[in-house]
Design goal:
single chain, alpha/beta, five-stranded parallel sheet, four-stranded antiparallel sheet, 63% helix
Amino acid sequence: MSYYLRKNWKISSLVCFLQICIWGIQTAAQLLLISIFDAAMGLDFKRFIFWIFMNLLCWGIYFIFGIIQEYFQSKTVRRLNNQLRHDLYLSLLNKDYKEYHSLDSGEYISWLTNNVSQIEKLAWNPFFDCVGRVSQIIYSVLALAWIDWVLLLASLITATVMWSVPKLFDKKMEKVGAENSSAQAVAVGHLKDLFFGVDVLRLFGKKSLFLQKGDAVSDEIEYANFHLNCTKNIVWKIIGFLNVLLQIIIDILIVLLAFVGRIKIVIIVAGSSLIGSITNSFSSIADFRLSMAASKPYFMKVNIRDSSILTKDRYNSRPIIKDIVIENVSFHYGEKSVLKNVNMHLKKGGKYALVGPSGCGKTTLLKILLGWLPDYSGTIKFDDINAKDYTIEELQSQISYIEQDVFLFNSTIKENITLGEQFSKEKMEKTLRASAMSKDLASMPNGLETFVGEGGKKLSGGQKQRIAIARALIHNHSILLVDEGTSLLDEENADVVERNLLMNSNLTLVLVSHHLSMERKKLFNQVFEF
């Protein structure tokens, strides 16, 4: 938490300064009550009206500062939330393939939505409010010291008690906050699963099951918040009762001081108000501290804050210019053996096919070559250098991968091909011809600017595959791994795409297929049967 406040110290300091001003103005308004009641008891109408006017003026300034403070606090919270999400993105990018996919995407969505929302509620706003309350305590203590040192002593004892008691509940609130974070992440995962499965439930006439599951997920979300809020409220009520008890004791002390003549009777009103400010402020601070303790587990999701991981020069890597040698490579998913003692020699610029039934390890081998599954046994060498000596960035700057289930961003066709980079018109046209995408674009009113929809739902499976192929080709990676990348294309388009890939002498092609005809097998330098 402190890291983000320091990183945005200018605007955070401004908000804190405005909080200090606001509570100083409020304390001044409380002290004006002494003059108001003194004039009233002296039946001095003109003085009474004057001090009433001054009090109203003071409150007017208080509310103006309040509007300014709320604006800048909201602006600061927005900046803090964006910085937090940025660092969560960095933390996700820093995970390797296996670590990233060990959690459901619903949990990551929960980090970026629910967790950030909880941090705003439990950390950012309580921190700034806490600054204001501390200021109120200081102002009130100084005012009481001006009235009588006995009241100052009483306020300091109250402050010590109200500061110490909440510490007893810090660990409990951290635990409840962690449980809430975990429960919310699980619930978001269930919600995502429910929406993805709605068509299946409709198809089998299970609309009631959708409602049943939806209600269960809703209760998961609400119960997690309910448990956190209940625990927090119980603790807050205990501290609140202690606050009231101390305030009553000090009110009695003020009355006794007035009876013995140490202070004026009119000071009873202002003194009681100032004491109430102190006890109420400490009660609020206790609540803020409990909230901030509950927020700690949410910050633990952020484990990297250094954007330099994005500045690694992907193109100053060691180029693979000769061959890829695979020796006795084996891989297991838990107890299940997927690859066993695989041996291959892939020459640069060669065209290779991996053929075999589903589940025999073809896709796994491609992911090993990409560096996504590093815990294999055996040896893979790129130009006589162990593949494990390459960074993931070095490998992925040279290797493109087309998966069976093509993913497209909810953006335009052009954005999905270029991924934000700029390419010449000539190169774009050449790529579109090589991927057999030109005809499709001619029939689309917006051409390359056509939006594909969520996950590419506005396009056919074949069109999605052609976009993925265009994406791989235009970025000029020298090695292309294709996992059933033309399986959804019609025969004509599949022939165009494969012919262009096979004729590219600068491209090392490794294509996975369930089966290849004898004619197509002849087009490859070598076919490996699994």
